[in-house]
Amino acid sequence: MGISQVNVVNRSRYEHVEEVMTYMSEQLLLDTVTVLLTHQGYATLAQGHEDYAILRKLSPRLYRIYLSKRIPKYYISTVLTHELVHIQQYQLGKLFFLDQEKRKLSYNGDVIDLGLYEYKDRPHEIDAQQKAEYLVIVHKKALKKVLK
What does the pLDDT profile of the chain (148 residues) look like in tens digits? Predict the structure, then answer.
């Protein structure tokens, strides 16, 4: 279990990214996956998104996380964990796209039309944010050890 490989582009922006992702993936009991991490300028990332990151599923075990360069350093663990929760949602079959062009997905068996929801009101985003915030708080001491 856990992330098998983390490739980080421009790792000088955030220290300890691999350690945080590996530790939190173990807490989420993720199957072995590869995560490619890329830093993007806000203008490139934003394109209608309100979050600090975007996750793309490239294949069943390959994901790319685009991170905004504007994430406050104190918040990076929460942002990364939020994206790892989405990977968990994919792996458990709870989240998958029905029609990417029409922006429709399935989450917990419900059809979600992304055009009908504000970002913060999307059920899979609410779940990911709540779990990420909880995990970062619960594992704060352990994360501090990981980050030393």
Answer: 666 666 665 554 677 787 888 888 888 888 888 888 887 765 454 444 456 888 999 998 889 888 887 888 888 889 999 999 999 999 999 999 999 888 899 999 999 999 999 888 999 999 999 999 999 999 888 877 766 6
- Residue written as tokens 């068996």? 109
Can you list the positions of beta strands (E) in 51-92?
53-59, 62-68
Pair of tokens at residue 55: 């996750």
Q: Which of 6, 138, 1, 148 is nearest to 67 (CA)?
A: 6
- Residue 125, φ and ψ in degrees, nearest 5: -75, -40
pTM of the model: 0.86
Which residue segments constitute the domains of the chain, with CATH numbers given? 5-146 (3.40.390)
- Name beta bridge partners: 38: 66
Give the DSSP H or E segment for 25: helix 17-27
Residues in the chain, overall count: 148
Residue 99 and residue 138: Cα distance in Å, rounded? 36
Could you tell me if 29 and 15 are in contact, meaning their C-beta atoms sit under 8 angstroms apart?
A: no
